[in-house]
Design brief:
- By secondary structure, this protein is an alpha/beta fold.
- The protein has 8 domains: 197 residues, 5'-nuclease (Rossmann fold), CATH 3.40.50.1010; 77 residues, DNA polymerase, domain 1, CATH 1.10.150; 194 residues, Nucleotidyltransferase, domain 5 (2-Layer Sandwich); 99 residues, Up-down Bundle (Taq DNA Polymerase, Chain T, domain 4), CATH 1.20.1060.10; 144 residues, 5' to 3' exonuclease, C-terminal subdomain (DNA polymerase, domain 1), CATH 1.10.150.20; 81 residues, no CATH class; 61 residues, no CATH class; 146 residues, no CATH class.
- Helices cover 46% and strands 14% of the residues.
- It contains 49 helices and 33 strands.
- The strands form 9 sheets. It has a 6-stranded mixed β-sheet with strand order 3-2-1-4-5-6, sandwiched between helices. A 6-stranded mixed β-sheet has the order 7-10-9-8-11-12. A 5-stranded mixed β-sheet has the order 25-26-27-29-28, sandwiched between helices.
- The radius of gyration is 38 Å and the shape is globular.
Length: 1227
């Protein structure tokens, strides 16, 4: 009899999901349920030796059972998202294997399975029904076997049930099993059953009477009495429950027994799914099933003798094209596989006179021979293969041993395969055989396991010979077919003129490597470990217990059980502690932020401080790998180590770049494309407005802000520009309203309005993006400017999330891929030009839109010229390509100290003579307001004393009137040589902006605190200040001051550093670049900082910081008319500060408001209010925030303190303070 296997799709998928630990593929897609399902399916098929197979799934719509009982399955919990996303994927995988997938509206999978099982059993077919649901036991029959698998870590156990098995285990027949379930009810399906009757009673009743109806007919005989009473009172409920529990055997489902016939499950489509899902053990099944003896193997030969190898090369010279691949290992070349005809495939091990050098030399001669023939025949077309050529599987790996270079007739079959299908994970010989030749051949792993090919070939092992021969055979056989496909898809020119030359550029870059300073790396690692250790202790202290911070399970328990934080999301393994969960909590809970900080530092330590060290070679350089066949968009990727992924949004991440330094006598030249993807978007979309903006070198973000927010260009605020920038770049990546709302911390509605306004402004972009999605859906792929294809199978997925992802891919890939193509062309052009001029300089890194060249100092200017020329002219666009190139003595300095941060300044102590020098320069610049080349700003007192009578205007007065609410303090650094020279040319200036709220009780309302007032007034102050021609702004903000920090970020500032103990406290240092230059001002703020040690000298931490940014404090003895408060009486590690009213009023003579202003400036979060005025009391500190001890004697009342947002406690309320601090742990 023939055999049919029917599988309950949702049931088995669910069993696998809960039975197998979480698995994800490289895309982040959950795969454990699909993996478990397939393993169960393969096991069942092997055991059954079945002829036919079909799978049934439930649908989302209500069924006929819901019409009978609305609450049916009403108590069932929603399917976990991680499982839900695998349902459509499972259906796609089954379809790729040719397995019928059945589902029907109004019915459940059980009904489909029951109908088909009974129908086919009646036609003398042996049926096996596979399900984790015991409801299907009612189907068990002579020709119907119910198989119930149970999956766990140790594998899968399957229990079989025929009618006698059901009777033996449950004491009832399969049909009677329905009545048992109806009486006892089913919580999972919310079948009510009969109250007070459980499984034992139900089983005994049905075993005795055979059915519910018969038991009711013998109601008077039923025992115990409670069962009798329950059945009497709820008989109608029992009958309905039986109807709900009975599987429908007459479901009108269409089923083709022929289509369910198992022909070939191991299809090429299924193989690609297994590779995408990273199911390596299942992939091995494909090899076992399909890799029988290939006819080509009959002509695979082992040649070991020198004379025989000589004959091979002589014959190869006469061939039009040759396929080969060197076999390499730790000792270099260990052999080769070579082929130039169906009967000419050879495996050659290194042995005797056949050395590695000999093989390389002969191969080089072969390539030269072919190159000569091609040149004699005339010019080779760029969109076709040369007449004579060699083909290899991975040319770049061969260049380590072969002296080949640009222009030689060597073709890479692996790269050709990548262009045709960039979604594949690998392009080894077995992949190319399957995808290009349509045959399945045994993989390396299938032939050799974990043994190295070179060692096995040296012993002449048969499988090694087969493997080596396949290397040459596949390259030889596949290359012409690959070329034909490339030509048919319009990518042959892309292959010949871009991808093939790139191989040599990448090889040159890998061979050059980049120098890494081991000492600097060690220092960086030690610094990280110290910070990690400190964070650990802080985390344990706040948690009140020690635990494994790296354990998601323990961390989840601490966060959501012990600390009772909100938003705890449980998975099957415990609470989720993924980054997205913690990031939502971090703004309100510093403890959570410390966890995120810990993870970040730990990753930096393991990946870079420790990870980079193992890659530094004996020459002191890192020779990483740069790959051109990994990313789907065409971007180059970096591995072993990944130097493209060094974090740049945090200071400690950027600090890693200091490890990379040039050789003595060399400098780094860093060249970066400016907004290349937006420029490509302008070109490809043809949007006239965007093209005009770039053609006129306008500020594209300001232009966008002006158009989107209907604001005159001159009045665009920094926050509008920042939001427009997020929209500009978000559009390139197909950002959704949700994504934009998350980025900008606005509502989805606002985000959608931004996007809609953007598309109204740039209609060409909207049309372009819509066209990409449409083309991707209709064609199955999208293309770059140069014809590169990116398949988008996600657009036809049954999974909504996958389709949405596909739309983003369709919109972004043409832009990102075109940017990658342009960079490849530029990189090749730069490398070829450096070599053409015989320069010592060489490319050492490629990072997305950036090239890093190690240039001989005497060649640096020439290198900059080459970079700018070749990168700008790599492609012809409707808008100009712009490039910025800079030099530095490390990767950090070449990248960080230009176009963004401070450079060219030196630190020294300011002296009295500096005041005169400054005043002399200011005198010359007194015409600044009429012709503003210079801008002078400072605190009120210093302005009035030294500037106002020199013809300058006090800007702060224009903000707040005669009694300014905001005083603007600027710090200016002057170019200098460190010896007291302020510089002959003040052509570049950098400024630090500090806004301080000056409050009086009449003007400041209760809802304002100093920080909030600062944030509120910043926009108004900057509107005035930023109209002046300064070029750079720096600002320091305490991380706890979230309102001000957000305001600064909204105004276009970026965090460039985070310094601990900057003025005794942690500080974010923010930076913003302006378009103009020349700023001059004194440094009242530095004056304050310089005197915080109570002796007028520089604090060590501040001095260290200033040395790093090379700032000169100008006139540090002045602080804007306010005297510096004397050093507090008590201080602990620079973090506890005490302030008393007497302390302040003895110097300011003004009383309570000044006291509070100072307290707020020091970051007071609570106050101990004393009844009289003692000397300074001891302050307390919590999580880095300062407390102050204030006194009533100076007019400070509890009401006034509360009005300023300072919590008040009495002297004897220490216990309350401790509890308040614990409760308010986010201060």
């Amino acid at each position: 009899m023939e055999k049919l296997v029917l599988i309950d799709g949702h049931s088995i998928l669910s069993r696998a999901f809960y039975g197998i630990p979480e698995l994800t593929n490289p895309e982040g897609l959950h795969t454990n349920a699909v993996y478990g399902f397939l393993n169960i399916m393969f096991r069942i098929l092997e055991e059954e030796k079945a002829d036919h197979l079909a799978v049934a799934f439930d649908r989302h719509e209500p069924t006929f059972r819901h019409q009978m009982y609305a609450e049916y399955k009403g108590t069932r919990k929603p399917m976990p998202e991680e499982l839900m996303e695998q349902v459509p994927l499972m259906k796609e995988v089954l379809s790729s294997m040719g397995v019928p997938v059945m589902e029907m509206a109004g019915y459940e999978a059980d009904d489909i399975l029951g109908t088909l099982a009974k129908r086919m059993a009646g036609e003398e077919v042996e049926v096996s029904v596979v399900s984790g649901d015991r409801d299907l036991l009612q189907l068990a029959d002579t020709h119907i076997k119910i198989r119930i698998p149970k999956t766990n870590r140790n594998g899968t156990e399957v229990k079989d049930y025929y009618p006698e098995d059901v009777k033996r285990e449950y004491q009832v027949t399969p049909l009677e099993y329905i009545d048992v379930k109806a009486l006892m009810g089913d919580a999972s399906d919310n079948i009510p059953g009969v109250p007070s009757i459980g499984e034992k009673t139900a089983t005994s009743l049905i075993a005795a009477y055979g059915s519910i109806e018969n038991a009711y007919a013998h109601l008077e005989e039923i025992k115990p009495p409670r069962a009798k009473k329950a059945l009497a009172e709820h008989y109608d409920m029992a009958v309905m429950s039986k109807e709900l529990a009975t599987i429908c055997l007459e479901c009108p489902v269409e089923f083709s027994y022929e289509e369910a016939k198992i022909e070939n499950l191991y299809t090429p489509e299924a193989y690609q799914y297994m590779k995408r899902l990273n199911f390596k053990s299942i992939l091995s099944r494909f090899d076992e099933q399909q890799s029988g003896s290939n006819p080509a193997e009959e002509h695979f030969w082992l040649v070991e003798e020198y004379a025989g190898v000589e004959q091979i090369f002589e014959k190869a010279k006469k061939a039009e094209h040759v396929g080969f691949q060197l076999v390499t290992g730790m000792d270099g070349v260990e052999g080769m596989g070579i082929c130039f005809g169906e009967e000419d495939c050879y495996a050659v091990p290194v042995s005797g006179f056949v050395s590695g050098a000999y093989l390389c030399g002969r191969l080089e001669e072969l390539v030269q021979e072919m190159d000569g023939r091609n040149k004699a025949d005339g010019a080779v077309k760029e969109d076709a293969l040369p007449k004579s050529y060699v083909a290899v599987l991975d040319l770049k790996s061969q260049l380590k041993y072969l002296k080949l270079d640009y222009g030689c007739p060597a073709m890479d079959a692996g790269v050709a395969g990548y262009l045709l299908n960039p979604l594949n994970e690998s392009y080894d010989y077995d992949d190319l055989a399957r995808d290009c030749l349509g045959t399945t051949v045994p993989s390396r792993e299938a032939l050799l396991g974990k043994e190295k090919l070179g060692a096995a070939l040296a012993r002449g092992e048969e499988n090694a010979v087969i493997c080596a021969c396949y290397l040459g055979y596949t390259a030889w056989k596949a290359m012409p077919l690959l070329a034909q496909k490339l030509s048919g898809q319009g990518m042959m020119a892309l292959y010949r003129t871009m991808e093939m030359p790139l191989i040599y550029s990448l090889h040159h870059m890998e061979a050059a490597g980049i120098r890494a300073d081991k000492g600097q790396l060690k220092k960086y690692g030690e610094s990280l470990k110290g910070k990690i250790s400190q964070l650990e202790q802080e985390i344990y202290s706040l948690a009140g217990e020690t635990f494994n911070i790296n354990s998601p399970k323990q961390l989840g328990e601490v966060l959501f059980d012990h600390m009772q934080l909100p938003h705890g999301k449980k998975t099957k393994t415990g609470y989720s502690t993924k980054a997205d969960v913690l990031e939502k909590l971090a703004p309100e809970y510093p403890f959570v932020q410390k966890i995120l900080d810990y993870r970040q530092l730990a990753k930096l330590n393991s990946t870079y401080a420790e990870g980079l060290a193992v890659y530094i070679g004996e020459d002191g350089r890192i020779h990483g790998k740069f790959n051109q066949t990994i990313t789907a968009t065409g971007r180059i990727s970096s591995t072993e180590p990944n130097l493209q992924n060094i974090p740049v949004r945090m200071e400690l991440g950027r600090e890693i770049r200091k490890v990379f330094v040039p050789e003595d006598g060399y400098v780094f030249v860093d060249a970066d494309y400016s907004q290349i993807e937006l420029r490509i978007l302008a070109h490809m979309s043809g949007d006239e407005r965007l093209i005009q903006a770039y053609g006129e070198a306008q500020d594209i973000h300001a232009i966008t802000a002006s158009e989107v927010f209907h604001t005159p260009l001159a009045e665009v605020t920094p926050i509008q520009r920042r939001n427009a920038k997020a929209v500009n770049f978000g559009i390139v990546y197909g950002i959704s309203a949700f994504g934009l709302s998350e980025d900008l911390s606005i509502s989805r509605q606002e985000a959608m309005e931004y996007i809609n306004k953007y598309f109204e402004t740039y209609p060409g972009i909207k049309a372009f993006l819509d066209r990409q999605v449409k083309d991707g859906r209709e064609q199955g792929f999208v293309t770059t400017m140069f014809g590169r294809r990116r398949p988008v199978p996600e657009l036809t997925s049954g999974n909504f999330m996958q389709r949405a992802f596909g739309e983003r891919v369709a919109m972004n890939s043409p832009i990102q891929g075109s940017a990658a193509d342009i960079m490849k062309l530029a990189m090749v052009a730069v490398d070829q030009e450096l070599r053409r001029r015989n320069m010592k300089s060489r490319i050492v890194l490629q990072i997305h839109d950036e090239l890093l060249v190690e240039a001989a100092k005497e060649e640096a200017d020439e290198v900059i010229q080459i970079l700018e020329d070749k990168m700008k002219h790599a492609a012809s666009l409707r808008v100009p390509l712009e490039v910025e190139a800079h030099c530095g003595d490390s990767w950090f300095s070449s990248k960080e100290e230009h176009g963004g941060a401070i450079t060219g300044f030196s630190f020294r102590r300011a002296e009295d003579s500096d005041v005169d020098a400054v005043m002399a320069v200011m005198e010359e610049a007194k015409h600044s307001l009429e012709n503003p080349d210079w801008f002078v700003a400072d605190g009120r007192g210093w302005v009035e004393s030294h500037i106002k009578d020199k013809g300058f205007t006090m800007v702060a007065e224009t903000v707040g009137g005669k009694q300014p609410e905001v005083a603007a303090f600027f710090i200016v650094a002057f170019p200098g040589d460190g010896e007291g020279n302020l510089g002959e040319e003040l052509g570049f200036g950098s400024s630090q902006l500090q806004l301080t709220a000056h409050m009086d009780s009449a003007a400041v309302k209760k809802e304002y605190r100093g920080n909030h007032l600062q944030g509120k007034l910043l926009s108004e102050a900057e509107k005035e200040l930023c109209s002046y021609p300064h070029k750079h702004l720096l600002c320091t903000v305490h991380p706890d001051n979230q309102a001000s920090l957000k305001t600064m970020l909204d105004h276009g500032y970026e965090i460039v550093a985070t310094k601990e103990k900057y003025h005794g406290r942690m500080r974010h240092i923010l930076y913003k670049k302006r378009e103009k230059k020349n700023v001059l001002a004194s440094s009242c703020l530095l004056g304050v900082h310089c005197r915080y040690n109570g002796e007028g000298g520089m604090e060590p931490e501040l001095k260290k910081l200033m040395e790093q940014v090379h700032l000169i404090p100008v006139c540090p003895e002045t602080m804007g008319g306010l005297e510096t408060p004397r050093e507090p009486a008590e201080r602990t590690n620079g973090r506890v500060m005490t302030v008393s009213g007497r302390d302040v009023t003895s110097q300011y003579k003004k009383g309570a408001e000044e006291t509070l202003a100072l307290a707020l400036a020091y970051g007071c979060c609570f106050a101990i209010l004393k009844e009289r005025s003692p000397s300074c009391g001891k302050g307390m500190v919590y999580d880095g925030s300062h407390s102050g001890t204030l006194t009533k004697g100076d007019g400070v009342t509890a009401e006034l303190l509360e009005a300023y947002g300072i919590r008040v406690f009495g002297e004897s309320e220490a216990g309350k303070i401790k509890k308040w601090l614990d409760d308010a742990g986010n201060l």
